[in-house]
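Quick one - inputs below.
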Amino acid sequence: MRVLDHPEVGEIRLESVLHALADPIRLQIVRFLAQAARGVSCSEIELEVSKSTGTHHYRVLREAGVISQVYRGTAKFNALRRDDLDTLFPGLLDSVVSAIAARR
Amino acid sequence: MRVLDHPEVGEIRLESVLHALADPIRLQIVRFLAQAARGVSCSEIELEVSKSTGTHHYRVLREAGVISQVYRGTAKFNALRRDDLDTLFPGLLDSVVSAIAARR
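Output:
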């Protein structure tokens, strides 16, 4: 089965995480995943962009270390790397998720 | 005296703040300002970039609402907009500053 590349915990860089979060579509994905108790397939998150653009945004999040993506069959399932991020950058993910939720 | 444009508090956007922070030089500036008790002139912060590149980075931070810049004479003095950011995005600035400081 195809396995997607993920940075190791020690390879996750603050700048890359901030860059990955600095986009409204990617924030929408992060917010959705933050509320989910389990892995979520891409098709469950409705984004107002084309499928290929959506795929790009998921990849940016994965390559920065913000989310994990695993194949089940032909679908990719996504989850926040909450433990890794909380360990590396305590409070960062929570403050961003709260800020998204509070946004006007 | 020349006055520089700053976004009003209500105009500060999460994506712009995250984008402004997603750069090693700008994180270096933010870290320095977070430790300063007063406004700091650009020349006090040693950056390993040209003066014009440095000016660009300060402008990105200002236009995103991360810092304020005021002229005193011909020098620009910089300060974090900590109160505004803490009100808009509680915990965000602290978590980023802590993450910079803890970085390997």
